[in-house]
Every structure is written in structure tokens, then in C-alpha cells.
Amino acid sequence: MSITPGMHSDVSILRAWLELLWLSIRRQARMRQMVWIALGLLFLAVLAVGLVTLFGSWTLADRRVRMPPGRTQPATQGASSVATTAKKSTEAPPKQSNPSPSASPIPLRPRRLTYQETIDVSQVLMLLGDRGGPVQAAVSGSLRVALVKSSFLIFSRWIVFAIFQSFLLPLLTLSFATDALGAERENRTLTWLFTRPLPKPAIYFAKYLAALPWCLSLNLFGFVAICLAGGEPGVLALRLFWPAVACGTLAYAALFHLIAALFRRPAVVGLVYSFFFEMLVGDLPGDLKRMSLSYYIRSLMFDATASMGLSSDQLTVYNPVDGWMALAVLAGAVATFTFIGMIVFSRTEYREDV
Fold first, then answer.
1. What CA–CA distance (Å, rounded) separates 119 from 123?
2. Which residues have a Cβ under 8 Å from the Cβ of 306 and sit 6 or more positions away?
3. What was the pLDDT predicted at 59?
4. Which DSSP symbol is given to 320?
5. Both ends of the chain: CA-CA distance in Å?
6. Are the C-beta atoms of residues 261 and 211 closer than 8 Å to each other?
7. Strand (E) positions, 131-260?
8. In sequence order, what DSSP letters do the residues of 334-348 get, joined into one string?
């Protein structure tokens, strides 16, 4: 079988593209300043989560119930009769005719019960007073189950949503995604890329694929480290949320790679976008947040907890979309950002960078 000149040309172009891809992957391994900053913030997050886990502060069991000002904490129905009986049994003897002024009783401030103590007292009073029946028993059992799941809710809200998904995920992706083309522009090595027998869209796509292994590895490694430091609720969050982290990484990498093709200082532009758009607009009420990637990443996370019967207390404000819809939007964002980036990179001269 003879190889025609056209086939030989196609093989040469494919080989050159694969060599460029492998070379770009190896060049991405260089630890630059943005990567060190991202790793430092990740280490601080893991350390903070580990300390919270060490002191057992994820659950609500040991936290005291908050009551409105001027009111004491009620227990359940029947508590007043039990408290009256206890008061009569511990009543002090009659006072003398001339009591000493220094013997006046000191009012004691009632201690607020913890959530666990409140549930336990509720069940004890229900058994002693024989009130409530199966309805109160079901309510008390539901509260106990909710208390067990509270550690996962607290960990998800403050660590997964507020810290990792809104802050660390775009920052960790930014450290590698903007460097794929940004380093070439800063080092003025685009001339070498343009001398390859490859069209510009193929060069752009190779650079994007070369950044993906490092972005995925850093984000998934960071998420695993944070979740393992969180103990049992962190392990559950890892099992439910890692697909959303991976999908979000692909979308953020495509966006930041496009920013690197548009701007000479992509890291600065990416930081401004992450802090002022994703963190602020992504949590605003209304439909404006649907323009952010974090909205669809968080929608995937909400969808992952649907089978557990858990939901956010801000669903009416956040109003997430269905999981399949969020996945379709993120996939469309990857394709759209990559296609636009190919067009921009192929039509831009970059004369000041060569």
C-alpha cells in the first residue's frame, strides 16, 4: 500500500499537533507564582477545615438553641406541669420572721439547652406525660435525623459552596488555564508556535487540552484534601459533589483560556472576573446570576443531594435549575468558549507578543 502525498501531509500535521500537545503539557508543569499562591490558599483551607473537624464543630448537636429576646426556652407540651412538680419538691422551708438582708435569693439566669438536649427533653416529656402520640414521636424522630444530617449541611454551605466552589475552584483553574497562552505571550515565544505546520485553531485547541490535566488534577486533589480533612460530612460531600467540580473545571478552563487569547494580562482579568462577577453576581436574587458559571455548578450540587431529601434554605432565592439542564449549559459553555477562542486566536496578529 503506497502513501499518497496528501496522506503523508495529514500524518505530518497530526504528528506535529501531538508533539505540540505533549510539549505544552510538560511546559505546564512549571510552578509559577499563581500556582504557588493557589496552593498556599488551598493549604490554609485544608488546615482550617481540619481544625474545625478536630474540635467537632460541624454538627448542631452541641450548639445552643437561639431564642427571641425576653423569652425563655420552651421544651414541649407538658413541660410546665413537670417544672411545677419539680419546683414543689425542691421548695425551700418557710422563711423566718426576721430574715437577714444578706440572705435574699440571687436570681439565676436559665441555661439555654443545646439542640441535642432539647430533643432528648422532648422525648422524655412525651414519655412521662403520654402526650403527643405518634405524631409527636414522628416529629421528634425527624428532628433527630435532621440533627444527624446537620453536619453535612453546615460543611456543604460554608466549605463547599462559600469557600471551594465560589472562590478556590475558579482560582485553582485560573492558575493553569491562563498560563497556557499567557506564558507564551509574556515570554514572546508565539513566533515559535506560528512556525509550526499547524493552523492557529489547532494550536489554540492543543493549548487548551494541555491545560486540562493540570487543572483537573489540582482541583480534584484540592477538593479531596478539603473533604478528607472534614471527616464524615466531608467524605459524603466528596462522593456527591466531585462530578460538579470536574464539570466546573472544564467550563472555567475554557473561559480563562479564551481570556488569555483576548488580553495580554489574563491572570489579572481572570481574578477580577472571579471576585467581582462569580462571587457577587452568582449569589444575587433574580435572573442575572444565570449568566455565571457558578450558578450551574451549584445547581449540579443541589441536584446531587436530591436523593437524600436535603435542600438549601435559600432555594427560593437561588432557584437552581435541573441537573441535566445545568450539565447541558456547562457543556455548551465549553464548546462555545473554545469555538470563540479558536476564531479570536486565528484572526489576531499578536504582533506585540512576537
1. 6
2. 323
3. 67
4. P
5. 43
6. no
7. none
8. HHHHHHHHHHHHHH-
| Distance (Å, whole) CA 147 – CA 167 | 28
Contact between residue 237 and residue 230 where contact means Cβ atoms under 8 Å apart: yes
Is residue 120 over pLDDT 60? no
Residue type, 102: S
Domain assignment present for residue 257? The answer is yes
Contacts of 209 (CB under 8 A, 6+ apart): 21
The rounded percent of the chain whose pLDDT value lies above 70 is 65
Instruction: Please give the DSSP secondary-structure letter assigned to residue 95.
Output: P
Mean of all residue pLDDT scores within the chain: 76
Spatial CB neighbours of 317, under 8 Å, sequence gap ≥ 6: 285
- The Cα–Cα gap between 297 and 248 comes to 6
User: How crowded is the C-beta side of 334, counted as CA atoms within 13 Å?
Assistant: 17
Determine the Cα–Cα distance for residues 61 and 82; give it in Å rounded to an integer. 24
Phi, psi torsion values for 18, nearest 5 degrees: -65, -40
Q: Provide the domain count of the chain.
A: 1
> Is residue 216 included in any domain, yes or no?
yes
Give the residue numbers spanning the domain of 47. 39-56+151-353
Name the region of 260 (left: φ>0; alpha: ψ -120 to 50; beta: rest).
Answer: alpha
> Is 70 within a domain?
no
3-state secondary structure of 225: helix
**Residues whose CB is less than 8 angstroms from the CB of residue 148 and which lie 6 or more positions away in sequence, other chains included:** 59
CB neighbour list of residue 191: distance below 8 Å, 6 or more residues apart: 354
Q: Per residue in 267-292, pLDDT tens?
A: 889 989 888 888 777 667 777 788 88
